[in-house]
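Worked Example 4.2. Consider the chain below.
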Amino acid sequence: MLPIDGSEGSDRAAVVAYEIAELTKSKLYIVHVINTGVVQQVARMSDKDPEDILRHYEENGEKLLQRYKSAALGYELEVETVLEQGLPSDRITALAASIDVDIIVMGSKGLSRSRKPGLGSSTERVIRRINCAVLVVHVD
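Applying the procedure from the previous section yields the following structure tokens:
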């Protein structure tokens, strides 16, 4: 499984995930989670309808998934894209458990790119909650 958010960490993790899936002849699930808490915050700050904001995030999420799926065309892979809503770490761990993935490949940091050393919050929560291997691809 490859959780993505369009960050440099996702881009780096994608190459590793494509290679692992190709070498192991495994199906690759590319997953993007729309953080519904962020959608609500944006709606409150902008005085816009949350449903309009959500539709915008869904459109962007589908474009993002297609970009990563297109990048996988250079590899011999079976790819499935999944668009979810909720808290990213919760949705990633629940989906991984439900489809029984062997490994999750993700960047050490996402779009927030916190300056503090260590892992991003979603990556750390996934590692703490999941019962499969997690390969974290480091981002400076």
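The two ends are 22 Å apart (CA to CA). Residues 22 and 76 are 6 Å apart (CA to CA). Compare this with Example 4.1 before moving on.
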